[in-house]
Amino acid sequence: MVELVSGWIWGHSLRGFLELLSRCVFGVGRTDDEWLDRWYVCPLVGADVTVEVRLVRVVGGDGVSVTVAGPESSGLRLRVEVLVDACAPVRVFANRAGR
Questions:
Q1: Structure letter (DSSP) for residue 11
Q2: Measuring CA to CA, which residue among 19, 31, 89, 84 is closest to residue 56?
């Protein structure tokens, strides 16, 4: 593996940078949930925990199926469940006349 780019960014820009970088790297757009072998798999290596994230686009929709695997930990499981629930697609359609 060769170094592609080296530089620095502001700390407050880190999250946005990683989100944009993930769009460049992740192959989620080319996945297909109707084929078991077309999931995108990405390890996330932390200081104390490593998890494997599996992603696939839902055919015919805007959804992405997500599976996270890692060491058995009720605390980690709860945090990941909350993240999935928080990021689940919620669409609210309101028709408020006069507002």
A1: G
A2: 31
